[in-house]
Specification:
- With 378 residues, the chain is α+β, with helices and mostly antiparallel strands.
- It is built from 9 helices and 10 strands.
- The chain has helices at 59-75, 113-131, 173-188, 202-211, 217-238, 274-282, 287-298, 302-337, 349-376; strands at residues 79-87, 91-98, 101-108, 141-145, 150-154, 159-160, 241-243, 252-254, 260-261, 268-270.
- The strands form 3 sheets. A 5-stranded antiparallel β-sheet has the order 1-2-3-5-4, with helices on both faces. A 3-stranded antiparallel β-sheet has the order 6-8-9, covered by helices on one side. Strands 7-10 form a two-stranded antiparallel ribbon.
- Helix 5 (217-238) crosses helix 8 and helix 8 packs antiparallel against helix 9.
- The longest helix has 36 residues, at 302-337.
């Protein structure tokens, strides 16, 4: 194992200033050299500061790390793990070296059928990119094991466009412009037939949200009318658009050579505007960017507008469902532990989630009015 004088544990992903290094595929900060020491020469294949640190393999989490590292070594024996970049209940992300270059290994911890299927879909996407390069920069595939759900790709240089799913502050306009440009190029790409499928069944998703009480009867009828009109406008295949499927700013790295898109586990064919609807949803504090996204989504005509509105309703409802669950969990945890705010005068995480949930409900009400207006013009 790679050893160093300071230990590196694997806490949840911290929130850091926008200008700081971080994100899922960025190099961790290296320790500064000792006074008077000669700075080592950077290897030719390494971009960014050299890696440093060691893994904490003690305890229950250490046992999970050892299993993850063993699964990586089965497909990439030369991978030398250095640090844990991100750990969740579902997966762990390791950064290390492969020869003179740096790489990122992603290992699934939750082997439930749904997560295994999603992980294998991401592996299939990276394998497809080997022969059919998309019009944006993506990490190069090094090794993959679909059976054990292990993936090793190159580490791409750059800074993440946003450290959180829903940025609390409006990103710089240049960052939004770069992200929109990359997503537009992906949406205009037509990969070879058979490489990707349609991950989202719109009719069943709408019916499911109606059964859960997330859609009213009128929502169900309006969305079914729009979907029926889209089917007649160009057919399922004719209206299809290739999308990243999870076009969050946290999945976009910005580098001097251009944006890099990562996390392709949801890539496939959608109704036009799915990626734009995702971006619109998370940019609640950037009204100018939202206006630009809406104009871009409607530029292709009424059919593209209707598809964007259908996508927007589904994405917003999914976010509402996710954050309602998070708020309920945070309320249970706070009542059980009696914990208050972390810092005087600062909002607690549960309060921030409640404010975000209120904004999502307001956005969904606005999207619902737009859907009804679109139905009225048909």
């Amino acid at each position: 194992m790679y050893t160093a004088s300071s230990s590196v544990t694997a806490p949840p992903r911290p929130l850091r200033p926008l200008g700081a290094g971080g994100g899922p595929y960025l190099a961790p900060h290296a320790a500064p050299p000792a006074p008077g020491a000669v700075r080592p020469r950077r290897p030719a294949g390494l971009v960014g500061p050299p890696l440093s640190g060691r893994l904490d393999l003690s305890g229950t989490q250490g046992a999970q790390l050892r299993m993850a590292i063993a699964s990586v070594h089965r497909i990439c024996p030369e991978f030398n793990p250095v640090q844990v970049l991100r750990r969740s209940g579902r997966s762990v992300l390791l950064v290390g070296s492969t020869g003179r270059a740096t790489a990122v290994a992603k290992c699934l911890l939750d082997h439930s059928p749904a997560w295994m299927e999603r992980f294998r879909h991401e592996i299939a996407a990276y394998r497809a990119f080997v022969r059919h390069r998309p019009p944006v920069r993506v990490p190069r595939l090094i090794a993959a094991d679909p059976e054990n759900c292990t993936l090793v790709i190159e580490r791409m240089p750059g800074r993440v466009a946003a450290l959180t799913r829903h940025p609390s502050e409006a990103p710089p306009r240049a960052d939004v412009r770069a992200a929109l440009g990359a997503i537009s190029r992906v949406n205009a790409w037509r990969p070879a037939p058979g490489l990707f499928d349609a991950p989202l069944d719109y009719a069943s998703r709408v019916a499911r949200y109606h059964e859960l009480g997330l859609f009213t009867d009128r929502d169900l009828g309006d969305l079914q009318k729009l979907l029926h009109g889209l089917a007649h406008a160009g057919g399922r295949q004719g209206m299809g658009q290739f999308c990243h499927g999870d076009a969050l700013l946290s999945n976009i790295l910005l580098s001097p050579t251009g944006p890099v898109l990562v996390d392709w586990e949801h890539a496939g064919w959608y109704l036009p505007g799915y990626d734009l609807a995702t971006l619109w949803t998370v940019l609640g504090d950037a009204p100018a960017a939202r206006r630009q996204i809406s104009q871009l989504a409607q530029a292709a005509g009424p059919a593209a507008r209707d598809a964007f509105l259908v996508n927007l309703m589904l994405v917003l409802t999914r976010e509402i469902r996710t954050y309602e669950t998070a708020v309920q969990r945070a309320m249970r945890d706070s009542s059980g532990s009696g914990a208050g705010q972390d810092r005087p005068g600062a909002l607690s995480s549960s309060e921030e989630q409640r404010l975000l949930l209120r904004r999502l409900h307001d956005d969904c009400a606005m999207a619902r009015r737009a859907v009804r207006a679109a139905v009225g013009t048909r």
